[in-house]
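sanity check this fold:
=====
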Amino acid sequence: MSVDTRPGPPTTTGHVRFLDRVNPVAAFAAAICYSIPMLFTIDAVSALVGLGGAAVLLGLAGATPRDVVRRAWPLFIAAPVSAISMLLYAQPGGHVYGTFLLATVSDNSIRLSIAVGLRVLAIGVPTLVVLAGVDATRLADGLAQLCRFPSRFVLGALAGIRLFDVFRDDWTAMAQARRARGLGDSGAIRRGLTMAFALLVLAIRRGGVLATAMEARGFDGGERTWARPSTLGRDDLVLVLGAILLAAAALTTSIVTGSFSLVGTGAS
């Protein structure tokens, strides 16, 4: 049977939002269908269209600005960093505004920095918002039942994911225990290496116990039934088609406006 029979996560109002209803397998398929085509070009127009369209679609799907910030905040740091790096170190082209050591600011570097910063947001934000809330148990059900992945591999991976929180608690407990013994106030590097080794030993022991327990409960293969069937429905089709149409609209707009710039072809 399945590892977990809990239903999908409801919202605080008791209603299940669109993003919570879709199958996690469909969410991953939509992310692939949207992000891969967007990687073929590096221009600001397609990125703006993709980012704006994704904002509208995510709003219609029930994602709030708080969800976007909470799930995609690392990208709001990574995008400016990527843009600044491209601004300073991209291949010079057009008018050169200034140079310093290896850094050169030119028309081409400015254009590329804007395009790269927007593209990081255009690809990363909708992908993280859709995938960050995926329930690991539902994803495992979908991978085993719909994608026909080996159930032993899927359930083992699911068990490993469930142990991440346990490892964090173990690290905190070890740090507190060492501090109580007067060993945690100096030598940060040595302390970190020692605790990492102890955590590795603990993880190996726990993995062995978990493997034995799962094998004793029949997780070692054979015919398997599932407590919660994983199916695809209309919402999943809408999500995948929406991702495909959004990517197509972004690239079409870029081509029509003449801003399409194939990655690897150099500056225009």
